Amino acid sequence: MSGIEHSSQPSESKSVAPLRVAVLISGSGSNLQALIDAVEGRQLPGVEIVLVISNKASAQGLQRALKHKLPAAYIPWKKREEAEQQMLSLLQLFRADLIVLAGLDAHPECRIHFPISTAHDKPASRPATRR
Known about the structure:
Elements: E1 19-25, H1 30-40, E2 47-54, H2 60-67, E3 72-74, H3 80-93, E4 98-102, H4 108-113, E5 116-118
Parallel strand pairs: 1-2, 1-4, 2-3, 4-5
């Protein structure tokens, strides 16, 4: 045995805080929608989407977030350093535990303070394969 005890019975004395996830998007938000569906469908128990951030005001993913009553923020990237500081401040304000990259990359400082997960793999970003 590994020494880790596991019980299928919920403990009344222990309350596990949900994993607070922030999702960074830049477009339609199809990966965001998959996460929303999984959380709402209880396929990801203990996960809570706490913030959606986009660098494009017209990103459909922001509307998806608002439709599901999720906090959503648009941060323009005209001055990247300033935008990245705003992003870091929002992530800290919303107490994100994990950042999911679903179309928008995270600043290296965010990578120091938060675990990162990539939710997509765009075909254009993969190397070409030969048959």
